[in-house]
Amino acid sequence: MTRLIVSDLRVHVSTWVWTFMVAVTCAAALAAQLRVMHGSLASARAAGNADMVEAAGTLAGWVIATVVLTALPVLASTVTQALELRRRDLGLWRALGMRPGLVVTVEGVQLTLLGGLGGLLGVGLGVPLSRLVMHLMVTEQAALPGTVSAAGAADLPVVIGSTAAVCLTGGLRSAWRTSRTPEALLLRGQSAPSRLGRWLGIMCRLGMVAALTAALVATVLAVPQDQESAVNQAVGGAFASLAMVIVLTPWVAPLLQHFAGWVVAGGGPAWFLATRTCSVESRRSSATVLPFTIAIGLVGTLFAMKTVGASGVTSQGFVAMFGPCLLVAWVGGIGIIAMAAGRRRHDAALLVAAGARLGQVRLTEISEGIIHTATAALLGLAATVASLACLDTVLDLGTPDLLRNGPWTQVGVAVGATLLVCCVTIALSTRGGTGASLTSELRTAE
Questions:
Q1: Most exposed of 23, 56, 286, 391 (fewest Cβ within 10 Å)?
Q2: Domain around 335
Q3: How far apart, in whole angstroms, are the C-alpha atoms of residue 183 and residue 94?
Q4: pLDDT tens per residue across span 192-241
């Protein structure tokens, strides 16, 4: 079995490369923030100020929680997409007599190995990243002058174990569903929906929604003891609002894209094809939208703090503390788009073979990027508005003023960057799928 695992990883390295890159990015972000936390706490303790130690610990806790909130869904979504691309390979294994349990075991070992190696490399890359983050934090006076990042005794096992665990748990559901699908469907690139797995997934997501709803209700109803506890309570509610949007994105994103198809029904063939692609490939579309939703929502939520008087929230300060989170989201979004390059090239070749002009194909791709961006923007705005509402409820600052002075400029910049990245990445991912390679693309399954 070891030979099978290693040879399969080597043969299908193109399928796993983006999953590995996202795992490395997540691990590097976590490792960097852990090193920053250790350095900040050590510097505060050396200064002998208990208030500074508490403030450094609180800030580090929020930052690391944000890294986890960003990395967990992005990495899990990327792993799931990678396994979806391997349906035909797993179908061939099943056709050759491999038992379903052994299929799950092999995929689980591969995912654990990829996650572990990604975590190990991420720990190394986290060292220079932590130095850059710490330099920016000292510049922004979020850390004492002279503070340097430092390693913790448990950083290596924590980062490697966390990355491997997320890769494994993120892919187990897809691997289990695929192992129960008939070989004939797998060889056609399809999978049979598992009623039990679907209901378990729904119940798990509903459980998370219920827990976040309870946290939001508790945030709104609790009476803070002082100003500091009120601020912490408001910040916690804002992050809970962002988490709620992230959890609901796989359900809400397809509905928004169906609505987009209805709105632009008369927009021409390119818009029609783009909306139909988003609707038919709803699972892939939701996975594409999720990382960019997190990025936009994170920008809106964090800069909402500036609206309520957090003067330390600046663009450079945001990059210093939450830049690694944005890096994880952007790499995850680009990776998921790139992983579907084969399918998009095949679709483009089919359109050209059906008589579509190359310009129409490119316009369809750009339209798909616009739809993904619009969906992520709406969900990111929902997270921003929910965060502002939570801040207003706890701190009683006045809803009209909050909405008027909200972080709309920063959110607009994030949306513009998302639009550029989505459209360019989708266009580049299909380059080579038309023209001279038309025949070869039509022969491929993806």
A1: 286
A2: 197-446
A3: 6
A4: 666 766 787 788 889 999 999 998 888 878 777 776 677 778 788 888 89
